[in-house]
Amino acid sequence: MIIIALGANLESPEYGLPLQTCLSALSRLEELGLGIVKTSRWLKTAPVPVSDQPWYVNGVAAVETDLAPAALLALLHQVEEEFGRVRTVTNAPRVIDLDLIAYHEVISSPDEHLVIPHPRMQERAFVLLPLLDLDPEWKHPLLNKTARELSQVLPDDQETMLFAEE
Question: Among 2, 11, 92, 156, which has the minimal tally of Cβ within 10 Å of its Cβ?
Fold first, then answer.
C-alpha cells in the first residue's frame, strides 16, 4: 500500500479552511494522475510538538501510482507549492502538508534524499489513528508491527478528536 498523509492548520486564501484545503489537494493529486483508493476520516489534532499554533486537520489516503517513490514525493511537493506552502522553520504552521508515509514494502536508507517509511510515523497519532481507517493490519516494514499495535503505544500527550465541521 502507498500511503500519503495530509494536514493543514492555516486557512488558504484560495481553498479556504484546512479541511477544504486537504480535500482540494486530494482532488489535485487525482488530476495529476494519482488514484485515490481510500481515505481515512479526518481528525483535529494538537500540534506536535505542543505549541500555541492552531490545531491541525489530518488524514491519510491510500493511493495508486506508477511513479517511483522519489517522483511521487516530488509530485507531493509540487502540489504543496501550488497550494501556497512556504517552508520556513521545522514544525511551522502550514496551509498544506503532504507526506509520503509508506510505499509498499520499500525501505530506503537515511542517507538517501527520501526515507521510507516516514521516520517518525510510528510516533504520530495524526498518522497512525487515520491509518487504522485504511487498514489496521498494515505492517510497518521495519518495525514489523501493525498499525493497530503501533497505535496502542503512542505517547499520551498527543491530543486528537474526530473532525466535525463547525
Answer: 156
- pTM of structure: 0.91
- DSSP notation for 99-148: EEEEETT----TTSS--SS-TTGGG-HHHHHHHHHH-TT-B-TTT--BHH
Q: Write the pLDDT tens digit of every residue in 36-49.
A: 999 999 999 988 77
Alpha carbons 52 and 91: distance in angstroms, whole number: 12
Catalytic annotation on 28? no
Clarify whether 157 is annotated catalytic. Answer: no
Q: Pick the catalytic residue: 66, 87, 94, 133?
A: 94
148 included as an active-site residue: no
Catalytic status, residue 156 = no
Q: Look at residues 75, 65, 61 and name the one whose alpha carbon lies nearest to residue 23.
A: 61
